[in-house]
Amino acid sequence: MPEQPQLTIQGWGPAAGPRDATVARGADGGPGSLELTAFPDLAEVLPKAARRHLARELGWTPRRTPPVPVADIRLAPSRLAEDCRLRLVELLGDEHVSTDREARLRHAGGKSYLDLLRRREGDASDAPDAVVQPGSTEETAALLALCSEIGVVAVPFGGGTSVVGGLSGVDADDRPSVSVDLGRMASVHALDVASSLVTVGPGVRGPALEEHLGRHGLSLGHTPQSWEFATMGGYAATRSAGQASTGIGRFDDLVAGLTLATPSGVLELGSPPASAAGPDLLGLALGSEGALGVITELTLRVRPEPRARHHEGWSFRSWEAGLAGLQRLARHELLPDVIRLSDPDETRADLLNASGTGASLLRGSLRLRGRAAGCLLVVGWEGLPAAVRARRRAASSVLRGAGAVRLGTRVGESWRRHRYAAPYTRDSLLDAGLLVETLETAATWTALPTVHAAVREALRTSLGRRGKQPLVLTHVSHVYPTGASLYVTVLADRDDALPIQQWLSAKRAATDALLAAGGTLTHHHAVGADHRPWLEREIGALGVEVLRAVKQRLDPQDVCNPGVLLPD
Ligand SMILES: Cc1cc2nc3c(=O)[nH]c(=O)nc-3n(C[C@H](O)[C@H](O)[C@H](O)COP(=O)(O)OP(=O)(O)OC[C@H]3O[C@@H](n4cnc5c(N)ncnc54)[C@H](O)[C@@H]3O)c2cc1C
């Protein structure tokens, strides 16, 4: 497998890319040396019309609020006692146990707005005390048993892209913590072409796996926006959904089996192709977020590499008409693989954000058709050419019947080209003094409009201050026969004095509102540390007790990522 790049510390993109700074290795807590910090200017990532729109809507004046140099990030000395470190070294080897500054900083938290704010302000108080790299299931199980014996918390680390505080290492007993980096277990173990199954280590990422499968004419097809960095183990641990999950299924649907190393032993779960041998324990590991143990191997369902791909845009007159159109597609079992229906605010922002002649023509054409205030829909199909043609034809007829107007492939291809760009743009917006964060939920078709309105209202009320209002941009990102998910992007003028409190209040208000309106706590980002106060509202007190009992059996010393999933 090719070398997989690490993520930059204070934002998005590969380490040693333009946004990264190299940290000289030094004593714990000591400063490193800053070599490079080059931030792309806002003008390079947003056209003038979009910058003006943001300034007008948000009451925001662009300002330079760059992160502190990486060398100035505060890092407390490692709390790992020397005898504990030596026990870890004895088990894993010296080269696989690190307490150095760079390793600890690279494993500090994930990539939520709050994570980035902290890192940009120079706060790495959530950094692990050491980073360890087991190389096999047996070593991982032995590591967890050792952590239980010496009282050290173990936080599995895949790609480090959690956006819900999944890597914050919170521990009520304040024990030292190790980040269990799965980068050494990043190879393909077996490919069973006849059964369409591939078995991989948890640290494998999408690009490397697709490259490997492509050589055999196969594909996994799971492409979340974090695809460049997130790992197979992380996807399973968080029940991720990718951009084509409407068609190929969520990551949960792609897992045929997995191995879970726990402090109490190793569980082999899943029996492809199907089994009726009691409740499916695989479901316990999916979404377990490192709280029950470490996923050390996964067997995944793969498909033939698509020979045809077609993405195109449509326009609906209104959000309600768009939702009704998607519902109709779902009812007739004609859902495309990719579906993305933007609400009017997101449509407006997308249109302003698009640049070039094609974009001007599109804006003009929508105005002429009286759809300037409508909703954009992007749909995509992948597969055999004949199947793509037939599915597209049938879906087009349903969309037309629901009042949608076809905009053509340029809109669809533009979405496809830019589909991994948003987190890079976010860094430039943060540099310029904005609050930028996303949240997500799902609801039945009946509840969806109320959930949409309730989340918008909660965010606008919480973030509106001194005459300023946030922009709340929403799209449907995954569609099911029974309902759909909503993905919300929030932009606001950042409160430079209290930026963390500003977002915490907004997030609390939005989460309360979406649960009260009938939405789920999370459709694909997981619970992490950030959502756990609300888990009981979703699964009930008895549900929490059942999970707690399972954890007690597998992890009696509570060393496996104790800060996530289960409420205090
Ligand atoms: C810009 C951006 C875009 C994103 N887009 C999407 C998206 O489109 N769809 C989506 O679903 N999510 C998305 N996410 C969220 C995130 O990428 C997913 O949650 C992803 O599944 C995390 O994978 P990871 O390998 O980075 O895991 P990490 O962030 O390293 O870990 C996530 C959680 O899983 C645990 N964990 C990791 N590996 C293992 C393992 N092997 N065994 C047990 N526990 C483990 C960790 O302890 C942690 O609690 C996005 C995040 C960002 C920053």
TrEMBL record:
Signal peptide start-end: none
Keywords: FAD, Flavoprotein
Sites marked Important for enzyme activity: 340
Cited Gene3D superfamilies: 3.30.300.330, 3.30.465.10, 3.30.70.3450, Vanillyl-alcohol Oxidase, Chain A, domain 4
Active-site annotation: 487
GO biological process: lipid biosynthetic process
Span of domain FAD-binding PCMH-type: 124-305
Cofactors named for this entry: FAD
Residues at which FAD binds: 156-162, 289-295
GO molecular function, a single term: alkylglycerone-phosphate synthase activity
Binding-site residues for substrate, renumbered to this chain: 426
Entry-linked Pfam families: FAD-oxidase_C, FAD_binding_4
InterPro entries the UniProt entry points to: Alkyl-DHAP_Synthase, FAD-bd_oxidored_4_C, FAD-bd_PCMH, FAD-bd_PCMH-like_sf, FAD-bd_PCMH_sub2, FAD-linked_Oxase-like_C, Oxid_FAD_bind_N, Vanillyl_alc_oxidase_C-sub2
Superkingdom of origin organism: Bacteria
Region described as Disordered: 1-32
PANTHER family for the chain: ALKYLDIHYDROXYACETONEPHOSPHATE SYNTHASE, PEROXISOMAL
Family recorded in the similarity comment: Belongs to the FAD-binding oxidoreductase/transferase type 4 family.
UniProt protein name: Alkyldihydroxyacetonephosphate synthase
